[in-house]
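It is worth pausing here to work through a concrete case rather than discussing structure prediction in the abstract. The textbook approach is simple: state the sequence, then state the predicted structure, then interpret. We follow exactly that order.
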Amino acid sequence: MTQRRSLDIGITIGLHSEAESMWVNGIKQNALYLARLFQHSPFAHRVKLVNTTAVPITRSLPWDLSQFPTCSFEDAKDSLDVLIELGGQIDVQQCAYIRERGTKLVSYCCGPEYVQMMEAMIFERRMCDSVFINQHYDEVWVIPQVMETSAHFLGTLRRRPVREVPFVWDPMCLQMRTRELPFEGEYRPVGMPKRLSVMEPNIDVLKFCLYPLLIAEKAYRKVGARIGHIHVTNAEHLARRSPEFAGVAHYLDLVRDSRASFVGRYDTPQFLSEFTDIVISHQWGLALNYFYFDVCWNGYALVHNAHLCRDLGYFYPGNDLEEGAHQLVHAIEHHDEEWQGYRARQREVIGRFLASNTEVAVRYDELLFGLLGKHG
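Step two, the predicted structure:
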């Protein structure tokens, strides 16, 4: 049996600049939350973020380097019990080196890789110039929301069984960003017609804005002027350059009545604080997402169909836009009656995913010590 002790754990990131924002995508946040989880283990694991690019590590990074030590692969390679490849990939020689010294190597998968690769192949959306699939991991860990689409793809190509692992979140990044915002970014009723927001990435079919827009349209036909405006972010290019998108949108009363705007990319916390009362979301194969937690933690109404967190916000099943509109109307009419209680309930629900949740840390400890007990 493996002796249980504090471990030295590395989590890879791939920096593109010395002052890279945590809001470019969720991958840096993912690494930080996982590191924080390991620090909350009863064994108080020692964790480093391991950069796999040539970008220098400086104090310009947005996280606290004393809390989350960050170094190059070269500086970390001789001190690790486990290396978790999450946000940056190591090469063949680096993999051989750490395996030779006995470091366990985990592929931690937090993206819908099968869907992304399929889209790259079909639509010529170039992801890379050459494909490197490491087949020398000790284990492959996959978060729940990408199990359905990608688990068998990953396990087959990487030649390892796939383990589903808990999803982890923490409010630390949100709190860092909202510190200077009014009410620290938390929702407050404004006593005006409701401002709706749709903030899907709109880069693939998994999280696209059209169904949320149709939910808003169905609600608008019922409650009219109680909806003040809807902003659809990450959609300016669709409105300007997609005749199909623009053609559909022009049939909507929200558009005809000049109550809809299709805008560019925005920082989530700031956009919520300045322009939003209610968020409408739709997903297809990604039923957990940091975005949902960012919205609900600070008390904004979220109308969504993410079944893996169905007790969060205002839930509608599948593609049932009628129920989505019903939930939206309910939020429009009743959310402000108990907005403080709603925020408290959201934080309680999110508690089961928190990096500070001891039960989640213990589940990861079981994975870690099981990994170290494997031979070969």
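Step three, interpretation. The chain has a mean pLDDT of 95. DSSP finds 15 helices and 13 strands in the chain.
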